[in-house]
Sequence to fold (137 residues):
Amino acid sequence: MAVDVTATLEAPCSREELFECVSDLTTYPKWLDIVPRAAAVDGAVGDEHAWTVELRGRLGPFARAKRLRMVRTRHDVPDAVVFERRELDGRSHSPWRLEAHVAGVGNGTSRLTMRLHYGGGLWGPLVERLLSDEIER
Fold:
């Protein structure tokens, strides 16, 4: 079961400030509870920027943790950034793709639209519920 979630937020900051925050995964633990840790990876392959991202969530008695290697595959300052899962262990993994699009709406306000795609089945219902709860907060 694939999960596709889209969320939109208006923030009282410039487009550039908002883009700077969402284009670096190390900032996510500061504002996204399901990401308790994200660290830049030293020695990334070629010129790609990579991060190790830990996801953690609890829904009732069920808890899950997952570690992903995410690579920034698009970086159009200050409009859009895309991160995709790219592991280096030679095994097949479920796809994860996170897109962030930033637009100025005037009066020092910006709009962020984020889209998450998870193509696996194991985390599906839990991811969808956790993200819905996180978006509401």
